[in-house]
Design a protein that fits this description.
- The protein is α+β, with helices and mostly antiparallel strands.
- It has one domain: Sufe protein. Chain: A.
- Helices cover 46% and strands 18% of the residues.
- The chain has 5 helices and 4 strands, in the order αβββααααβ.
- Helix 1 crosses helix 2 and helix 3 packs antiparallel against helix 5.
- The protein is globular, with a radius of gyration of 14 Å.
- The structure holds zinc ion (ZN).
- The site of zinc ion has 8 residues, from helix 2.
Amino acid sequence: MDDLRELYQEVILDHGKHPRNLRALADATCSAHGRNPLCGDQLTVYLKLDPNGIVEDAAFEGRGCAISVASASLMTELIRGKTEAQARLLFEKFHHLAAGEGEDTVPPELADELDRLQVLAGVRQYPVRVKCATLAWHTMQAALSGAREVSTE
Ligand code: ZN
């Protein structure tokens, strides 16, 4: 179990220090700004959806703690190629995972993605950190819904 925890920490540190897709998206079809006042995390999520509602590109800008940045980095990788509905569903499942709300049934097409998010499951022991881990996801959902701003408070 300790080895696993160390591996998880490595992944979080890696994504926190070297975030993937940390850039603005000039041709984004929607974007939103998210704030987590409790921790001071702030980020903007950019999404580019193709005409069929598939996430063609996802990126983010901002600053925050390692958890919030790592989660945003992982998210932009994982939702690419997914439909809007799949991206929303992945957030729902990830939220259950991060908040420790028990076992969940996961559709097969999202099993690998949720597996990769297991690295963030440790936050469930720290309710404050759950907001860091889910900030990018709340922001992504806001962008899809046409909202410009979202706050975890
Ligand atoms: Zn944070």
